Amino acid sequence: MKKLFKLLSLSICIVMIGTLFVGCSKKTSEEISFFNYGENIDEETIKEFEKEYGIKVNIETFDDMETMYQKVNTGGVKYDVILVSDALMTRMIKKNLVQELNKDNIKNISQMDKSYLNLAIDPGNKYSVPYMFGTVGIVYNKDVVKEKVDSWDILWNQKYKNKVFMFDTYRDTLGATLKKLGYSLNSTDSKEIEEAKELLLKQRKLVDPIYGVDNGTTMIPVGESDINMIWSGEGLNLQDEYPNLEYVVPKEGANFWIDSLCIPKNAKNVSGAEKFINFVSDKESALRIADEIGYTTPNKEARLEQPESVKNNPNAYMPKEIMDRCEIYVDLPMDVKKIYDDAWINIKSNN
Fold this sequence. Notes:
Elements: E1 13-17, E2 20-24, E3 30-37, H1 43-53, E4 55-62, H2 65-74, E5 81-84, H3 86-94, E6 129-141, E7 164-167, H4 170-180, H5 190-207, E8 210-212, H6 216-219, E9 227-231, H7 232-241, E10 245-248, E11 256-262, H8 270-280, H9 283-293, H10 300-304, H11 308-311, H12 320-323, H13 334-349
Parallel strand pairs: 3-4, 3-5, 7-8, 7-9
Antiparallel strand pairs: 1-2, 5-11, 6-9, 6-10, 6-11
Helix pairs in contact: 4-5, 5-13
């Protein structure tokens, strides 16, 4: 996406002692630690926050939500702000790992679209503030794929053998297959999961898909793949950069995910964490972050400021009829996870 730039105003404090003028600025007198999913924020927002409040932001990143959960659960490292996925939110609340928010200090939550508040993962948003959301969908090369792409079915089309890219993550890939079959991507029915497994085994024979995660974003622009499972942010960014690529949310529905900001129970600097969450939830910050990383923002005021090609894109901000078919992942019981794990091992071991 075209980067949005904002002129920074320079604030100078001048102290006069006799005829001497001395420029000064806020000194960093405290710190917060932010445990974030990858490069999921822009540097300018961090710099502006540090300048505004004199609070240094120490960022540590993770690339798997379960890794985040384990580190927070053990309590060996104390964080002040953490990014939590929808699937883990309920578990972390039940385990008393996150604390209730004082919304008097996070007033910018009022800027959020009500569609992304009061979800089942955190009724009343007692523990979380929505940060970013998106979907899992399909990006495809229009120069090669000439038929209409509006369904997960295209991933089983033998015409594109060796050119189909699938996520190497069992929830995403089995989830998309369950949606193709008309089931919930949170299915706990062993027969439905078995049916999805068999369909993915069939796919291996038909198209011999490429399994991976982030490498899909570099493969499709150079023709190493033609149809990819992809997260919406990357898909929309690729569409913006390459006119021959297009991102779609399949008509059967998909995973709708929402990542939120929380304060761990053992946070050292709760006041600083509240200031940070409130700052990044403001319209200007939300707009800049969404433009930088490519994902859609739950901030309704920021959306109004986005380019027409973004704010009116039905594959970014989905119409209700598609949204109603999408689902948030839930944290599955251990016995059901075992069924998924066994199915996935079987799929990946059948070459």
